[in-house]
Amino acid sequence: MAQTKVIVGLGSCGIAAGAGKVYEELQRIKEADNLDFELKKTSCIGMCFKEPLVEIIDETGSYLYGEVDSKKADEIIEKHIVNFTPVKEYIVKSDTTDTKFDSYFEGQVKIALRNCGYIDPENIEEYEARGGYQAIKKIAGEKIGVQEVIKSILDSGLRGRGGGGFPTGLKWKFANNNRSKEKYLICNADEGDPGAFMDRSVLEGDPHSVLEGMIIGAYAIGASDGVIYCRAEYPLAIKRLNIAIGQAREKGYLGKDILGIEGFDFDLYIKEGAGAFVCGEETALIASVEGERGMPRKRPPFPAVSGLWRKPTNINNVETYANIPWIITNGAKEYAKYGTEKSKGTKVFALTGKIKNGGLVEVPMGITIKDIIYKLGGGIIDDKKFKAVQLGGPSGGCIPEYLSHTIVDYDSVNATGAIMGSGGMVVMDETTCMVDIARFFLEFTCKESCGKCTFCRVGTKRMLEILTRITEGEGREGDIEKLEELAYQIKDGSLCGLGQTAPNPVLTTIKYFRDEYEAHIRDKKCPALNCKKLLTYEIIEDKCTGCMVCKRGCPTKAISGEKKMPHFIDQSLCIKCGDCFSKCKFDSIKIY
Amino acid sequence: MRVTRINQKESAVKTEAKVDLKLLEPLIKKYKSKKGNLIPLLQGTQNLFGYIPPEAMMMLSRETGLKISDMYGVATFYAQFRLNPVGKHIIKVCHGTACHVQNAKVVTEDLQNFLEVKDGETTPDNIFTLETVACLGCCSLAPVMMIGDETYGKLNGKKAVEVIKEIKRKETLNQKKSLTENISKN
Ligand SMILES: Cc1cc2nc3c(=O)[nH]c(=O)nc-3n(C[C@H](O)[C@H](O)[C@H](O)COP(=O)(O)O)c2cc1C
Ligand code: SF4
Ligand code: SF4
Ligand code: FES
Ligand code: FES
């Protein structure tokens, strides 16, 4: 009889939700009661909204328990392990019964995330047991030539998952064409889009898939040195990568004459980023690896010609590399089966914001945004009205509800004015103010501009000032036009992608939510009731019990009224701090 | 612009302890004359002292031949580097997109009110430094903050303040303990 396994999801987000304590508790009971099960670790399975997750695999099947805390863990062990009766109400996924979350997995196709949540990322053997390092072994064993590998990647139609969507095979071909003896291969793990975390999940959950992808890439372009440029904010990813690199060296996947392929030497190291969004841009990243300020350089020359230390360099994103071994093992055709004509394969999205089932999903290109949000994501929190979805982070844009039939592929998303980006999908409901969102992104890009180009440096600042004014009720007629004018100037006058795309969040919100801008500017009102300075607080006379709580708390003494009598707010004194609203126990203060 | 990140004002907190430059020696040995060593050297220095003291920068320059101006340029470019000492606990409140739409603003505001510091500042007792960061990668738990290695999710202002209060309680307890220990030793 196979031993029962109890597996705890210990990704960053699981640990944040308390999975570490659950693991300790399970270990404690196991030892205290001398129970016969194997306690194991894994990483993110994508159901982040149900963290902490514990999976039990016994001879009857697999049972994934959600929102487990130490107490529930005790109960689950007691009932499931000791008495062989699964605790139905906590099960969120199982191959034996249906749960109400099954729709979250329907329609998902896991290629990049194929092992995430299924293996212990710190154990190379578990990766190998699920077909890991088979791709590079296949190349070595069948003596597949470099050109053939590149052709496979070309034929698969894989496009860069870091945002640009450049065909990966083509990139490799350029880098391969260069006859330089010294070449570099870089993995971009800087994941700068605030609201996207798929790269982190892949690195934490399946680091070997990225390493194998890089090894194959190095073989294809003829690189002998690799660098993984990883955000310093991802300590767990860095730790697991280091473990993985050590194991891969030990097993001879890294080093000299790898797997007996004569002359194929490759090794790599991790370079920790130091917190600059612009370093996600490839030339800035290279400058940063070289120890300089991360300022983008002029292209051409492209990195494929002159990159790190002026040598030919190939840069790909984490998710891009994670796809590679699968493509080599299963064939380009198999990969190209998924997706649309110009966007093949699958894409991982980080579903966040006002969404019920927030987490990581991997879907074939071509699925509609609506399906992702409603079928997989389960709809909007509290069933509020869905307003828009933000794609592509600070370089992207907001797609309004009425365009939610848009399919996700590079061209369709671009047509809306947003971009696919790295796959952050932030869902917004009626309480999200679109002017404020635009302001939020501009604040981000303004802070993150490297300062090299005047239009990016000064232009974003001017735009931010205008947007801030509008959200504070100081908007003027003509502001929208001024924003648009600045936007096009910044797009034209910026060297790198940061500046060129920085105005996108503003342009798309103006395009789709112009009425909201106008309400702020003309009526001095925020329809989403989000911009504080534009709100009016009023006491509803009929509801007010005269408890005096609001009066006592008001910092400007704007509230008057006798005990047990309806109170009144003097609008000229009110500074809209919201204190009275949050303190009133009788819901007798309305905001409009 | 990234330059605005430098705290222009002299920090209210003065370095009391002298910086023990000896600690830098292994770091220098490891990275001396390696290509692209500037950032790892600064990162290592900050790991040792919690910030990059001017003395350390001078020593690095003397020992490795790197220019102070280059070091200063890099240190002020990247958000990670600090040129001023920080509190014992750094509170990093996430203001990434997912946290922003889930009202991270309120978390920061309530913490500011409770600690009576502004963003980027350190409390007078040197226990807390308040910072905002962009995305900690736990967006599904938004809004999120991180203190040390601990991440706290699904916050609101009140919960965040509770967490801080708890840490503060422990800190004062520790202080009392070490005080009484010192007294009993004497
Ligand atoms: C401002 C800016 C930030 C970027 N940030 C990232 C990032 O965080 N991660 C990433 O993989 N690519 C990022 N990119 C895209 C990279 O420049 C590059 O195109 C990508 O790493 C190439 O890999 P791919 O072809 O596999 O997508 C960024 C680009 C710009 C202009
Ligand atoms: S566009 Fe902006 S971030 Fe890019 S190089 Fe110019 S100033 Fe720097
Ligand atoms: S919102 Fe603030 S200032 Fe205005 S009445 Fe209420 S408590 Fe007073
Ligand atoms: S399930 Fe934990 S990070 Fe996704
Ligand atoms: S946006 Fe806050 S953790 Fe990602």
Would you write up a description of this structure?
The complex is a heterodimer of chains A (about 600) and B (about 190). Chain A has about 600 residues and is of the alpha/beta class. In chain A, about 40% of the residues lie in helices and about 15% in strands. Chain A contains 23 helices and 18 strands. In chain A, the strands form five sheets. In chain A, strands 2-1-3-4-5 form a five-stranded mixed beta sheet, covered by helices on one side. In chain A, helix 7 crosses helix 10 (about 205-220), helix 9 (about 200-205) packs across helix 10 and helix 18 (about 455-470) packs antiparallel against helix 19. The model of chain A has no long low-confidence stretch (mean pLDDT about 95). Chain B is of the alpha+beta class. Chain B has two domains: about 10-75; about 90-185, 3-Layer(aba) Sandwich (Glutaredoxin). Helices cover about 45% and strands about 10% of the residues of chain B. Chain B has seven helices and four strands. Chain B has helices spanning about 25-30, 40-50, 55-65, 70-75, 95-100, 105-115, 155-185; strands at about 90-95, 130-135, 145, 150. A four-stranded mixed beta sheet of chain B has the order 2-1-3-4, covered by helices on one side. In chain B, a hairpin with a 2-residue loop joins strand 3 and strand 4 (about 150). The longest helix of chain B is centred in the C-terminal third of the chain and has 29 residues, at about 155-185. At the A-B interface, helix 1, strand 10, strand 14 and helix 17 of A face helix 2, helix 4 and helix 5 of B. Bound molecules: flavin mononucleotide, iron/sulfur cluster (2 copies) and FE2/S2 (inorganic) cluster (2 copies). One iron/sulfur cluster binds next to helix 18 and helix 20 of chain A. One iron/sulfur cluster (SF4) binds near residues 296, 456 and 457 of chain A.
